[in-house]
Design a protein that fits this description.
Blueprint lengths: L10 H17 L12 H8 L3 H14 L2 E4 L3 E4 L21 H10 L19 H13 L15 H13 L9 E4 L2 H12 L5 E6 L3 H9 L3 E8 L2 E2 L1 H11 L3 E4 L13 H14 L2 E5 L13 H5 L4 E6 L11 E4 L2 H15 L4 H12 L2 H25 L4 E2 L8 E5 L6 H9 L6 E2 L12 E5 L8 H15 L9
Length: about 475
């Protein structure tokens, strides 16, 4: 972990960098109370700096009470470290480009504020009348208890319905292999708790959904990115990562990948599974955008038979983000252990949410809603692509469905500069590096086409681009 100098660097700044590196190791629990630090010579060699720099850094860390010296023994981490901070383990991004901050901006923005960078559909696109009808239906059902916990695995009738829905996509999962969760995010959190230990390595697509990064950092694992192509992960790089890093887990979207909108091809899917089998790799397949597909794309879980692939999903994108219901489909022995883990961490599930989801899915209007949603999104995709094209933005691919366009910006613009300028107009954008572990997507932006239809958004983005040209330093147009 050498410190690389870019141009003239004062000794004091090197000392600060050494101190920050030690603090980050402690914050991320790589170093715990009582653990011995490398010797002055060892740390100097490891970080590529002089011994005097390490002496100064250690002296200042001792003054802060972060470490202590034991005569004749060395330097040790003191007790009572600061609380774990996900932000401390993230790449050094400016706060308005940080993935968690983008999520905060999207969640906390005024309801009327334009949010082309958010990850959900406008309220007016959601089946609110069907939800209200389901609420009335559940409220009238005196056999349903409004004050009870759910069963340990979740509402049986909903799990049976999910089993049939999964079979339509080629994923064979009996109701007993399905466990309901509070959300897709909780499903990932439970699986990380179940499968991972601090220090394990996890592969992700680069770019990928930015909350994958945040979730994995929270579980204190090493994250390795594999470049994503229009047909799936770059196979040579994927195989190289397996050999070099021996990862425990790979996390991906097979269909309508976030943020690119790409879909896994059958040939790539088969090769990924062959490599996973050869290297003992487990795969989490997040299928949250399934309702947006016109035709089901290949699923890793379908080819694998839920052997080493775990399939998850939720209804927050197509039904309601307020009704928190997701699911995990896995092999039976893992499902049983996951039920125990869910009880240990959250006890009973959301019975009312599950009943509402079931009532909506059983309503004849649900199919009409999803069919209309797909048509509406296809129209929005064409309209927004054309409007962004007038600004010189080019989609990386033309997605077959879904709500995301992954666009390359013109003129060497840095998407972070554009996002900062747009934020001053109260418009939330999603710059590419928020999705890229390798920070190789500075020239890209993710657009939610449903949230970008307001005619005033394009002129506002054009103004932000001009401000970025005037104030930004420019970038090279790298591939994602």
């Amino acid at each position: 972990m050498s410190i690389q100098s870019h141009g003239p660097t004062k000794a004091g700044s090197l000392v600060d960098q050494v101190m920050q590196a030690v603090r980050q190791q402690i914050a991320s629990r790589e170093m715990t109370p009582g653990m011995r630090l490398p010797s002055i010579r060892g740390q100097a060699d490891r970080m590529g700096v002089s011994r005097s720099t390490i002496v100064d850094a250690y002296d200042r860390l001792m003054a802060e009470g972060v470490i202590q010296s034991r005569r004749g023994s060395g330097f040790y981490v003191t007790g009572h470290p600061p609380p774990f901070s996900i932000a401390d383990t993230a790449p050094e991004l400016e706060r308005d480009v940080d993935p968690l901050w983008i999520a905060r901006q999207s969640l906390d923005a005024d309801g009327t504020a334009p949010k082309p960078g958010c990850g959900w559909l406008p309220r007016t696109w959601m089946p609110e009348e069907e939800i209200r009808r389901a609420l009335r239906r559940v409220a009238r059902d005196t056999d349903f208890g409004l004050s009870d916990y759910s069963t340990s695995q979740g509402l049986p009738a909903l799990r049976q319905l999910l089993s049939r829905r999964l079979a339509d996509r080629g994923v064979i999962a009996a109701p007993g292999q399905i466990m309901l969760t509070e959300s897709g995010t909780q499903a990932i959190d439970l699986l990380c708790r179940f499968l991972l230990q601090p220090g394990d390595t996890v592969l992700v697509d680069d770019p990928c959904y930015f909350n994958f990064h945040a979730m994995l950092r929270a579980h204190q694992v090493q994250v390795v990115g594999v470049p994503y192509t229009p047909t799936g992960p770059d196979l040579p790089r994927f195989e190289q990562a397996l050999k070099q890093h021996a990862p425990r887990l790979y996390m991906t979207n097979s269909a309508l990948q976030n943020p690119t909108g790409a879909t896994l091809s059958p040939a790539v899917a088969h090769r990924v599974l062959k490599l996973a089998e050869a290297h003992g790799l487990i795969i989490i397949e997040d299928d949250i955008f399934a309702d947006f597909e016109h035709e089901p794309a290949p699923r890793l879980a379908a080819f694998d038979g839920l052997d080493r692939v775990i399939h998850i999903g939720s209804f927050s994108k197509s039904l309601s983000a307020a009704i928190r219901t997701g699911f995990i489909a896995a092999r039976p022995d893992w499902t049983s252990e996951l039920v125990d883990l869910r009880i240990a961490t959250s006890f009973g599930g959301g019975a009312l949410s599950a009943e509402l989801v079931l009532a909506v899915l059983q309503d004849g209007a649900w199919r009409r809603h999803t069919s209309g949603l797909r048509t509406r999104l296809a129209t929005a995709m064409e309209t927004v692509s054309r409007r962004l094209g007038s600004l010189g933005m080019k989609p990386w691919i033309e997605p077959g469905a879904g709500m995301f366009l992954w666009c390359r910006l013109p003129d060497g613009l840095d998407a972070a500069d554009v996002a900062r300028a747009a934020l001053r107009q109260s418009i939330v954008l999603a710059p590419g590096n928020a999705f890229s572990l390798g920070q190789d997507a500075s020239g890209f932006m993710r657009f939610n086409v449903a949230q970008t239809l307001d005619p005033g958004i394009i002129p506002a983005i054009e103004r932000a681009m001009q401000q970025a040209r005037n104030t930004g330093s420019g970038i090279s147009q790298a591939s994602p």
